[in-house]
Amino acid sequence: MKRESRTVDRSHQVDSPTQRHLPLVDLLVDTRAALMELAVTSGLKVLTTMLEEDRTAICGPRYQHQEERQASRAGTVPSEVVLGGRKVAIRRPRVRRDGAEVALPTFQAFADNDPLNHRVVEQMLVGVATRQYARSLEPVPTPVVSRGTSKSAVSRRFVAKTRAQLEAWQSQPLEGLALVALLLDGVHVGEHCLIVALGIAADGQKHALGLWEGSTENATLCQSLLANLQSRGLRTDRSVLVILDGSKALRKAVRDLFGDGALVQRCQVHKLRNVLDHLPERQRTWAKAILQRAYRSADVATARRLLTDLARRLDTDHPSAAESVREGLDETLTVLGLNLPETLCRSLTTTNAAESLISRTRHVKRNVKRWRGGQMVVRWVAAGVLEAVKGFRRLKGHKAMPQLVAALRARDHQLGLVVDVEANVA
Prior knowledge:
single chain, alpha+beta, 45% helix, disordered C terminus
Protein backbone atom coordinates (compact mmCIF):
# COMPACT_ATOMS: atom_id res chain seq x y z
CA MET A 1 0.00 0.00 0.00
CA LYS A 2 1.41 3.34 -1.01
CA ARG A 3 1.81 5.88 1.79
CA GLU A 4 0.54 9.40 1.38
CA SER A 5 3.20 12.08 1.50
CA ARG A 6 3.19 14.23 4.63
CA THR A 7 5.10 17.04 2.96
CA VAL A 8 3.19 20.29 3.34
CA ASP A 9 3.32 22.85 0.56
CA ARG A 10 4.07 26.21 2.20
CA SER A 11 4.82 28.12 -0.97
CA HIS A 12 1.57 30.03 -0.61
CA GLN A 13 2.39 31.23 2.92
CA VAL A 14 3.78 34.73 3.47
CA ASP A 15 5.96 35.60 6.45
CA SER A 16 4.31 38.05 8.83
CA PRO A 17 6.27 41.10 10.04
CA THR A 18 6.64 39.51 13.48
CA GLN A 19 7.44 35.93 12.37
CA ARG A 20 10.18 34.65 10.08
CA HIS A 21 10.85 31.19 8.64
CA LEU A 22 14.65 31.02 8.67
CA PRO A 23 16.66 28.56 6.55
CA LEU A 24 18.66 26.79 9.28
CA VAL A 25 18.96 23.37 7.65
CA ASP A 26 22.72 23.86 7.41
CA LEU A 27 23.10 24.22 11.18
CA LEU A 28 24.93 21.10 12.39
CA VAL A 29 24.42 20.27 16.05
CA ASP A 30 27.02 18.38 18.03
CA THR A 31 25.06 16.42 20.60
CA ARG A 32 28.05 16.56 22.95
CA ALA A 33 28.07 20.38 23.06
CA ALA A 34 26.93 22.16 26.18
CA LEU A 35 23.48 23.71 26.17
CA MET A 36 24.85 27.26 26.43
CA GLU A 37 27.25 26.71 23.54
CA LEU A 38 24.38 25.38 21.44
CA ALA A 39 22.20 28.38 22.33
CA VAL A 40 24.92 30.92 21.51
CA THR A 41 25.93 29.22 18.26
CA SER A 42 22.32 28.92 17.16
CA GLY A 43 21.56 32.51 18.16
CA LEU A 44 24.47 33.88 16.14
CA LYS A 45 23.41 31.78 13.17
CA VAL A 46 19.87 33.16 13.43
CA LEU A 47 21.22 36.70 13.70
CA THR A 48 23.40 36.27 10.62
CA THR A 49 20.42 34.97 8.65
CA MET A 50 18.24 37.87 9.79
CA LEU A 51 20.92 40.39 8.75
CA GLU A 52 21.14 38.79 5.33
CA GLU A 53 17.35 38.95 5.00
CA ASP A 54 17.49 42.66 5.77
CA ARG A 55 20.06 43.14 3.04
CA THR A 56 17.94 41.14 0.59
CA ALA A 57 14.89 43.26 1.43
CA ILE A 58 16.86 46.43 0.63
CA CYS A 59 18.94 45.27 -2.34
CA GLY A 60 16.74 42.56 -3.78
CA PRO A 61 17.64 38.90 -4.43
CA ARG A 62 21.27 38.08 -5.12
CA TYR A 63 22.39 37.56 -8.75
CA GLN A 64 19.14 38.93 -10.20
CA HIS A 65 18.98 41.96 -12.45
CA GLN A 66 16.74 44.77 -11.20
CA GLU A 67 16.36 47.99 -13.15
CA GLU A 68 14.98 49.92 -10.16
CA ARG A 69 17.67 48.79 -7.74
CA GLN A 70 18.72 51.74 -5.52
CA ALA A 71 21.12 50.01 -3.12
CA SER A 72 23.87 47.46 -3.60
CA ARG A 73 25.72 44.87 -1.55
CA ALA A 74 29.14 45.88 -0.26
CA GLY A 75 30.54 42.74 1.32
CA THR A 76 30.87 42.39 5.09
CA VAL A 77 32.64 44.26 7.87
CA PRO A 78 33.69 43.29 11.43
CA SER A 79 31.06 44.49 13.96
CA GLU A 80 29.78 43.76 17.46
CA VAL A 81 26.41 42.99 19.00
CA VAL A 82 25.29 42.69 22.63
CA LEU A 83 24.82 39.12 23.83
CA GLY A 84 24.49 37.86 27.40
CA GLY A 85 25.95 40.94 29.09
CA ARG A 86 28.94 41.26 26.76
CA LYS A 87 29.84 42.31 23.21
CA VAL A 88 30.57 39.56 20.69
CA ALA A 89 32.20 39.92 17.28
CA ILE A 90 30.29 39.14 14.07
CA ARG A 91 30.62 39.79 10.34
CA ARG A 92 27.97 42.34 9.43
CA PRO A 93 26.61 42.49 5.86
CA ARG A 94 27.02 45.95 4.31
CA VAL A 95 24.61 47.89 2.09
CA ARG A 96 25.47 51.14 0.31
CA ARG A 97 23.27 53.68 -1.45
CA ASP A 98 24.53 56.80 -3.23
CA GLY A 99 27.93 56.34 -1.64
CA ALA A 100 26.60 56.17 1.89
CA GLU A 101 26.14 53.30 4.32
CA VAL A 102 22.57 52.01 4.79
CA ALA A 103 21.70 50.80 8.31
CA LEU A 104 20.20 47.34 8.76
CA PRO A 105 17.20 47.42 11.16
CA THR A 106 18.09 44.11 12.84
CA PHE A 107 21.68 45.17 13.48
CA GLN A 108 20.58 48.47 14.98
CA ALA A 109 18.35 46.62 17.43
CA PHE A 110 21.03 44.12 18.52
CA ALA A 111 23.91 46.60 18.64
CA ASP A 112 22.17 48.97 21.06
CA ASN A 113 24.33 49.41 24.18
CA ASP A 114 21.43 50.18 26.52
CA PRO A 115 20.65 46.52 27.38
CA LEU A 116 24.32 46.00 28.17
CA ASN A 117 24.47 49.08 30.39
CA HIS A 118 21.27 47.98 32.13
CA ARG A 119 22.77 44.53 32.77
CA VAL A 120 25.91 46.08 34.25
CA VAL A 121 23.92 48.30 36.64
CA GLU A 122 21.74 45.42 37.80
CA GLN A 123 24.78 43.24 38.49
CA MET A 124 26.42 46.01 40.51
CA LEU A 125 23.26 46.65 42.52
CA VAL A 126 22.91 43.02 43.55
CA GLY A 127 26.47 43.04 44.89
CA VAL A 128 28.67 41.88 42.00
CA ALA A 129 32.05 43.64 42.07
CA THR A 130 33.46 45.04 38.83
CA ARG A 131 36.31 42.50 38.95
CA GLN A 132 33.81 39.65 39.20
CA TYR A 133 31.42 40.78 36.48
CA ALA A 134 32.80 38.43 33.85
CA ARG A 135 32.42 35.47 36.22
CA SER A 136 28.75 36.33 36.78
CA LEU A 137 27.93 35.82 33.09
CA GLU A 138 27.15 32.58 31.31
CA PRO A 139 30.19 31.29 29.37
CA VAL A 140 30.34 31.54 25.60
CA PRO A 141 31.94 29.06 23.20
CA THR A 142 35.69 29.39 22.70
CA PRO A 143 35.49 30.44 19.01
CA VAL A 144 33.28 33.40 19.90
CA VAL A 145 35.30 36.59 20.41
CA SER A 146 33.87 38.86 23.11
CA ARG A 147 34.82 41.94 25.07
CA GLY A 148 33.30 44.55 27.43
CA THR A 149 33.60 42.52 30.63
CA SER A 150 36.81 43.98 32.05
CA LYS A 151 36.83 45.93 35.31
CA SER A 152 37.39 49.27 33.57
CA ALA A 153 34.75 48.66 30.89
CA VAL A 154 32.15 47.65 33.47
CA SER A 155 33.00 50.67 35.61
CA ARG A 156 32.63 53.07 32.66
CA ARG A 157 29.26 51.63 31.74
CA PHE A 158 28.03 51.79 35.32
CA VAL A 159 29.07 55.44 35.64
CA ALA A 160 27.42 56.39 32.33
CA LYS A 161 24.17 54.57 33.07
CA THR A 162 23.80 55.79 36.67
CA ARG A 163 24.61 59.37 35.64
CA ALA A 164 21.88 59.24 33.00
CA GLN A 165 19.43 57.74 35.51
CA LEU A 166 20.21 60.46 38.05
CA GLU A 167 19.75 63.29 35.55
CA ALA A 168 16.44 61.85 34.34
CA TRP A 169 15.21 61.38 37.91
CA GLN A 170 16.17 64.85 39.13
CA SER A 171 14.45 66.48 36.16
CA GLN A 172 11.26 64.44 36.29
CA PRO A 173 8.23 66.78 36.52
CA LEU A 174 6.03 66.61 39.62
CA GLU A 175 2.96 68.54 38.43
CA GLY A 176 0.91 65.41 37.93
CA LEU A 177 1.45 64.06 41.45
CA ALA A 178 -1.25 64.84 44.01
CA LEU A 179 1.11 64.76 46.98
CA VAL A 180 -0.37 65.14 50.45
CA ALA A 181 2.66 64.15 52.55
CA LEU A 182 6.40 64.69 52.28
CA LEU A 183 9.05 62.73 54.21
CA LEU A 184 12.56 64.15 54.48
CA ASP A 185 15.46 62.23 55.97
CA GLY A 186 19.23 62.27 55.76
CA VAL A 187 21.95 59.68 55.26
CA HIS A 188 25.70 60.10 55.83
CA VAL A 189 28.06 58.44 53.35
CA GLY A 190 31.70 59.01 54.17
CA GLU A 191 32.17 62.75 54.53
CA HIS A 192 29.00 63.54 52.64
CA CYS A 193 25.43 64.09 53.82
CA LEU A 194 22.50 63.42 51.51
CA ILE A 195 18.88 64.44 52.05
CA VAL A 196 16.29 62.09 50.53
CA ALA A 197 12.74 63.24 49.76
CA LEU A 198 9.86 60.77 49.65
CA GLY A 199 6.35 61.84 48.65
CA ILE A 200 3.03 60.20 49.53
CA ALA A 201 0.23 60.69 47.01
CA ALA A 202 -3.48 60.94 47.76
CA ASP A 203 -3.92 57.26 46.89
CA GLY A 204 -1.19 56.18 49.33
CA GLN A 205 1.40 55.48 46.63
CA LYS A 206 5.02 56.35 47.50
CA HIS A 207 7.17 58.40 45.14
CA ALA A 208 10.92 58.96 45.46
CA LEU A 209 11.28 62.65 44.59
CA GLY A 210 14.98 63.39 44.76
CA LEU A 211 18.11 63.81 46.82
CA TRP A 212 20.71 66.47 47.40
CA GLU A 213 24.30 66.31 48.63
CA GLY A 214 26.29 68.45 51.05
CA SER A 215 28.88 68.21 53.78
CA THR A 216 26.38 68.59 56.62
CA GLU A 217 22.60 68.65 57.05
CA ASN A 218 22.43 72.45 57.03
CA ALA A 219 19.73 74.89 55.96
CA THR A 220 21.40 75.61 52.61
CA LEU A 221 21.41 71.94 51.64
CA CYS A 222 17.77 71.52 52.67
CA GLN A 223 16.70 74.65 50.81
CA SER A 224 18.50 73.45 47.67
CA LEU A 225 16.58 70.19 47.71
CA LEU A 226 13.21 71.83 48.29
CA ALA A 227 13.92 74.49 45.66
CA ASN A 228 14.65 71.72 43.17
CA LEU A 229 11.34 70.03 44.01
CA GLN A 230 9.47 73.32 43.65
CA SER A 231 11.05 74.05 40.28
CA ARG A 232 9.84 70.67 39.05
CA GLY A 233 6.24 71.41 39.97
CA LEU A 234 5.81 70.56 43.65
CA ARG A 235 2.79 72.53 44.93
CA THR A 236 3.47 74.86 47.84
CA ASP A 237 0.19 76.81 47.87
CA ARG A 238 -1.80 74.38 50.01
CA SER A 239 -1.40 72.34 53.17
CA VAL A 240 0.91 69.35 53.09
CA LEU A 241 1.95 67.05 55.92
CA VAL A 242 5.74 67.15 56.30
CA ILE A 243 7.35 64.41 58.40
CA LEU A 244 10.84 65.22 59.69
CA ASP A 245 13.44 63.54 61.88
CA GLY A 246 13.88 66.55 64.14
CA SER A 247 16.55 68.43 62.17
CA LYS A 248 16.25 72.16 62.79
CA ALA A 249 17.74 72.89 59.37
CA LEU A 250 15.07 70.80 57.66
CA ARG A 251 12.32 72.42 59.70
CA LYS A 252 13.51 75.93 58.82
CA ALA A 253 13.74 75.09 55.11
CA VAL A 254 10.23 73.60 55.13
CA ARG A 255 8.79 76.67 56.87
CA ASP A 256 10.52 78.97 54.40
CA LEU A 257 9.12 77.11 51.41
CA PHE A 258 5.61 76.14 52.51
CA GLY A 259 4.94 78.83 55.11
CA ASP A 260 1.68 78.20 56.96
CA GLY A 261 0.93 75.36 54.55
CA ALA A 262 3.50 73.11 56.26
CA LEU A 263 1.87 70.80 58.80
CA VAL A 264 4.98 69.44 60.53
CA GLN A 265 5.04 66.03 62.19
CA ARG A 266 8.17 65.14 64.16
CA CYS A 267 9.18 61.49 63.88
CA GLN A 268 8.16 59.77 67.10
CA VAL A 269 10.79 57.04 66.71
CA HIS A 270 13.60 59.61 66.52
CA LYS A 271 12.16 61.51 69.47
CA LEU A 272 11.95 58.31 71.57
CA ARG A 273 15.59 57.50 70.79
CA ASN A 274 16.73 61.02 71.63
CA VAL A 275 15.01 60.96 75.02
CA LEU A 276 16.32 57.52 75.95
CA ASP A 277 19.87 58.48 74.96
CA HIS A 278 19.81 61.05 77.80
CA LEU A 279 18.89 58.41 80.39
CA PRO A 280 20.93 55.69 82.11
CA GLU A 281 20.14 52.11 81.16
CA ARG A 282 18.12 51.38 84.32
CA GLN A 283 15.76 54.31 83.71
CA ARG A 284 14.97 53.61 80.07
CA THR A 285 12.36 50.86 80.42
CA TRP A 286 9.73 52.83 82.31
CA ALA A 287 10.39 56.04 80.36
CA LYS A 288 10.02 54.18 77.06
CA ALA A 289 6.72 52.67 78.23
CA ILE A 290 5.30 56.12 79.03
CA LEU A 291 6.45 57.56 75.69
CA GLN A 292 4.90 54.70 73.73
CA ARG A 293 1.67 54.97 75.72
CA ALA A 294 1.48 58.69 74.95
CA TYR A 295 2.11 58.24 71.23
CA ARG A 296 -0.58 55.54 71.04
CA SER A 297 -3.18 57.57 72.88
CA ALA A 298 -6.60 58.12 71.39
CA ASP A 299 -6.53 61.92 71.69
CA VAL A 300 -4.02 64.75 71.84
CA ALA A 301 -4.99 65.90 75.35
CA THR A 302 -4.17 62.54 76.93
CA ALA A 303 -0.88 62.25 75.05
CA ARG A 304 0.18 65.78 76.01
CA ARG A 305 -0.64 65.12 79.67
CA LEU A 306 1.45 61.91 79.73
CA LEU A 307 4.42 63.62 78.10
CA THR A 308 4.22 66.65 80.39
CA ASP A 309 4.09 64.41 83.47
CA LEU A 310 7.10 62.45 82.18
CA ALA A 311 9.11 65.64 81.70
CA ARG A 312 8.20 66.76 85.24
CA ARG A 313 9.40 63.44 86.71
CA LEU A 314 12.70 63.71 84.86
CA ASP A 315 13.38 67.35 85.76
CA THR A 316 15.33 66.76 88.98
CA ASP A 317 17.65 63.88 88.10
CA HIS A 318 17.74 64.03 84.30
CA PRO A 319 17.06 67.60 83.13
CA SER A 320 18.49 66.97 79.64
CA ALA A 321 16.03 64.14 79.08
CA ALA A 322 13.18 66.33 80.36
CA GLU A 323 14.17 69.11 77.96
CA SER A 324 14.27 66.60 75.10
CA VAL A 325 10.70 65.52 75.92
CA ARG A 326 9.43 69.12 75.91
CA GLU A 327 11.33 70.13 72.76
CA GLY A 328 8.94 69.84 69.79
CA LEU A 329 6.32 68.11 71.98
CA ASP A 330 3.31 69.44 70.05
CA GLU A 331 4.83 68.57 66.68
CA THR A 332 5.20 64.92 67.71
CA LEU A 333 1.39 64.83 68.15
CA THR A 334 0.39 66.61 64.90
CA VAL A 335 -1.05 63.56 63.14
CA LEU A 336 -2.80 62.45 66.33
CA GLY A 337 -4.89 65.61 66.12
CA LEU A 338 -6.18 64.73 62.65
CA ASN A 339 -8.34 61.88 63.99
CA LEU A 340 -7.09 59.31 61.50
CA PRO A 341 -7.43 55.51 61.84
CA GLU A 342 -4.72 53.88 63.94
CA THR A 343 -2.87 52.12 61.08
CA LEU A 344 -2.56 55.23 58.94
CA CYS A 345 -1.73 57.31 62.00
CA ARG A 346 1.24 55.08 62.82
CA SER A 347 2.48 55.23 59.23
CA LEU A 348 2.46 59.03 59.24
CA THR A 349 4.05 59.64 62.64
CA THR A 350 7.48 58.28 61.71
CA THR A 351 9.99 58.53 58.88
CA ASN A 352 10.16 54.73 58.66
CA ALA A 353 9.16 54.76 54.99
CA ALA A 354 12.14 57.01 54.17
CA GLU A 355 14.40 54.97 56.47
CA SER A 356 13.44 51.83 54.56
CA LEU A 357 14.31 53.58 51.33
CA ILE A 358 17.71 54.61 52.67
CA SER A 359 18.44 51.13 54.05
CA ARG A 360 18.30 49.82 50.50
CA THR A 361 21.12 52.19 49.53
CA ARG A 362 23.29 50.74 52.30
CA HIS A 363 22.88 47.29 50.81
CA VAL A 364 23.71 48.51 47.31
CA LYS A 365 26.89 50.40 48.17
CA ARG A 366 28.39 47.85 50.54
CA ASN A 367 31.09 46.82 48.03
CA VAL A 368 32.44 50.35 47.60
CA LYS A 369 35.80 50.61 49.38
CA ARG A 370 36.69 54.22 48.64
CA TRP A 371 34.49 57.18 47.68
CA ARG A 372 35.97 59.42 44.98
CA GLY A 373 33.99 62.63 45.45
CA GLY A 374 30.42 63.71 45.93
CA GLN A 375 29.27 62.83 42.39
CA MET A 376 30.12 59.18 42.97
CA VAL A 377 28.23 59.20 46.28
CA VAL A 378 25.13 60.74 44.70
CA ARG A 379 25.15 58.31 41.77
CA TRP A 380 25.40 55.24 44.00
CA VAL A 381 22.75 56.42 46.46
CA ALA A 382 20.44 57.40 43.61
CA ALA A 383 20.95 53.97 42.03
CA GLY A 384 19.98 52.36 45.33
CA VAL A 385 16.90 54.57 45.67
CA LEU A 386 15.73 53.83 42.13
CA GLU A 387 16.26 50.12 42.77
CA ALA A 388 14.14 50.31 45.93
CA VAL A 389 11.39 52.11 44.00
CA LYS A 390 10.78 48.91 42.03
CA GLY A 391 9.50 47.24 45.19
CA PHE A 392 7.37 50.12 46.47
CA ARG A 393 3.99 49.30 47.97
CA ARG A 394 1.30 51.69 49.04
CA LEU A 395 1.45 53.14 52.53
CA LYS A 396 -0.01 51.01 55.31
CA GLY A 397 -3.51 52.27 56.02
CA HIS A 398 -3.82 53.82 52.55
CA LYS A 399 -7.55 53.07 52.44
CA ALA A 400 -8.06 55.91 54.91
CA MET A 401 -6.08 58.44 52.84
CA PRO A 402 -9.28 60.32 51.82
CA GLN A 403 -9.66 61.29 55.49
CA LEU A 404 -6.20 62.84 55.49
CA VAL A 405 -6.93 64.69 52.24
CA ALA A 406 -10.18 66.03 53.68
CA ALA A 407 -8.41 67.22 56.84
CA LEU A 408 -5.75 69.04 54.82
CA ARG A 409 -8.30 70.73 52.55
CA ALA A 410 -10.33 71.81 55.59
CA ARG A 411 -7.14 73.32 57.01
CA ASP A 412 -6.65 75.21 53.73
CA HIS A 413 -10.05 76.86 54.17
CA GLN A 414 -9.26 77.80 57.76
CA LEU A 415 -5.95 79.41 56.79
CA GLY A 416 -7.31 81.07 53.65
CA LEU A 417 -4.84 79.27 51.39
CA VAL A 418 -5.45 79.11 47.63
CA VAL A 419 -7.67 76.13 46.89
CA ASP A 420 -8.99 75.35 43.41
CA VAL A 421 -11.44 72.79 42.13
CA GLU A 422 -8.68 70.39 41.17
CA ALA A 423 -7.20 70.55 44.67
CA ASN A 424 -10.55 69.74 46.22
CA VAL A 425 -10.84 66.67 44.07
CA ALA A 426 -7.29 65.59 45.02
